[in-house]
């Protein structure tokens, strides 16, 4: 009878996984467990290495995802793939000590808590593994905000190490954003009733091999998460990012145009054409990097095809923009409002088409 599934999201963790399975085996005793590696097609061959383990150990399972990214969605997918009534989510890089699992498991199974979280900030825990002081500070600040969202007194709501009933995650899955890495925060904040939480101290260790994937993304993902939570219902997060990038593109356009006209003395039509292409290229690059960071296009062929697609989309969007704005203006609408309406229509059009045809969702 399967009791517990350990969900292990992985991105380039090849060297870490075999020793981790050994450590799980050593501490889990009479708990019937399976380990599910949810790998986002790591370039270092993590999925192959995990399958190699799975051939000789039926407790090891592998989900290899192609063309998708993200810690949170990997966790949700792992939870949907197991028959075990309980799941533990942990990092595959040995920063989370598997020795805590039996106790965490007992606490949840006995019903004395809905979720057990291994906390770096509880007395007896340490955050030594947080590589920089800046990150530690950021982490504390984010925690204070997060406690309000989760309606709990958790000392470490951003922890990536926790255990709960599998069904709970599956039930909440349709409401989970699945974006970014703060999956525990999401689970706690979308639960209809505040969940009963318990904490165990975690001595957050050093990662064994490889490097952190979150360093650069951490702050950004957190801001995106806050936006998603408070305003995401009104203007969808991705559209908001797309529009922000678009607004920056207008700045780029003006800068380039001014440069060409004023410094290089080019004609207006040529300047406008060059500025338009520069801005479209800039927008394509920034959207690929930010707005669609979880489904980023990579490699020359993909990037080239994406860039051409994006420029085509934008050209059609610009036509729609001009057509609508001129029509409205001709029918007596104040010019600035007409222009604004054109811009909004163009942006919605560009967004709808490029999210479908350039970044393919
Ligand atoms: N499938 C998948 N997809 N796995 C990922 C992805 C992804 O996009 N990004 C990271 N992972 C995996 C890593 O391979 C590792 O097993 C685990 O998720 C944690 O990633 P790290 O890159 O080691 O994160 P960290 O140590 O910097 O961050 C830790 O602390 C954060 C709070 O400060 C983690 O425990 C986070 O969960 C935690 O929120
Ligand atoms: Mn780590």
Automatic annotation (TrEMBL):
<dbReference type="InterPro" id="IPR039528">
    <property type="entry name" value="DPM1-like"/>
</dbReference>
<dbReference type="InterPro" id="IPR001173">
    <property type="entry name" value="Glyco_trans_2-like"/>
</dbReference>
<keyword id="KW-0472">Membrane</keyword>
<protein>
    <submittedName>
        <fullName>Putative dolichol monophosphate mannose synthase</fullName>
    </submittedName>
</protein>
<dbReference type="Pfam" id="PF00535">
    <property type="entry name" value="Glycos_transf_2"/>
</dbReference>
<keyword id="KW-1133">Transmembrane helix</keyword>
<dbReference type="InterPro" id="IPR007267">
    <property type="entry name" value="GtrA_DPMS_TM"/>
</dbReference>
<dbReference type="GO" id="GO:0016020">
    <property type="term" value="C:membrane"/>
</dbReference>
<feature type="transmembrane region" description="Helical">
    <location>
        <begin position="307"/>
        <end position="327"/>
    </location>
</feature>
<feature type="transmembrane region" description="Helical">
    <location>
        <begin position="333"/>
        <end position="353"/>
    </location>
</feature>
<keyword id="KW-0328">Glycosyltransferase</keyword>
<dbReference type="GO" id="GO:0009247">
    <property type="term" value="P:glycolipid biosynthetic process"/>
</dbReference>
<feature type="domain" description="GtrA/DPMS transmembrane">
    <location>
        <begin position="242"/>
        <end position="359"/>
    </location>
</feature>
<dbReference type="Pfam" id="PF04138">
    <property type="entry name" value="GtrA_DPMS_TM"/>
</dbReference>
<dbReference type="GO" id="GO:0000271">
    <property type="term" value="P:polysaccharide biosynthetic process"/>
</dbReference>
<dbReference type="InterPro" id="IPR029044">
    <property type="entry name" value="Nucleotide-diphossugar_trans"/>
</dbReference>
<keyword id="KW-0808">Transferase</keyword>
<comment type="similarity">
    <text>Belongs to the glycosyltransferase 2 family.</text>
</comment>
<feature type="transmembrane region" description="Helical">
    <location>
        <begin position="239"/>
        <end position="262"/>
    </location>
</feature>
<feature type="domain" description="Glycosyltransferase 2-like">
    <location>
        <begin position="6"/>
        <end position="164"/>
    </location>
</feature>
<dbReference type="GO" id="GO:0004582">
    <property type="term" value="F:dolichyl-phosphate beta-D-mannosyltransferase activity"/>
</dbReference>
<keyword id="KW-0812">Transmembrane</keyword>
<feature type="transmembrane region" description="Helical">
    <location>
        <begin position="268"/>
        <end position="286"/>
    </location>
</feature>
